[in-house]
Amino acid sequence: MNELADLREVDLTHAVWRTSSYTAGNGNCVEVTPIPGISGIAVRDSKNRECPAARFTEQAWAAFIAAAVDDTLTS
Questions:
Q1: What is the pLDDT of residues 20-29, one digit of tens each?
Q2: Listing from the earlier edge strand, what are the strands of the sheet with 54-57?
Q3: Euclidean distance between CA atoms 9 and 42, whole angstroms
Q4: How far is CA 4 from CA 16, 18, 58, 71, in A?
Q5: Measured distance between the N- and C-terminal CA atoms of the chain, rounded to whole angstroms
Q6: Rounded alpha-carbon distances, angstroms, from residue 61 to 25, 26, 27, 33, 41
Q7: How many Cβ atoms from other residues are within 10 Å of residue 57's Cβ?
Q8: What's the pLDDT band for 1 if we cut at 50, 70, 90?
Q9: Helix residue spans in 12-57 (DSSP H)
Q10: How far is 62 from 70, CA to CA, in rounded Å?
Q11: DSSP state at residue 27
Q12: Are 7 and 38 in contact (CB under 8 A)?
């Protein structure tokens, strides 16, 4: 399998999800977890945990975080 296919196949049923320490506690946030056994990150909406999580390679996630920090995200 290729890396992207592997990201989609991993079962996240027992994943340990976390939120930012800056979360206000009102449920309006995202949760993240490393994808076990693969260099990837899964992200889900804390208000709708039954929806599928978005999955990213570590490189794609790092690029997203860097762009968010640098305020260079574009639409």
A1: 877 777 767 8
A2: 30-34, 40-45, 54-57
A3: 12
A4: 21, 23, 11, 27
A5: 32
A6: 24, 25, 22, 12, 7
A7: 17
A8: low
A9: none
A10: 12
A11: S
A12: yes
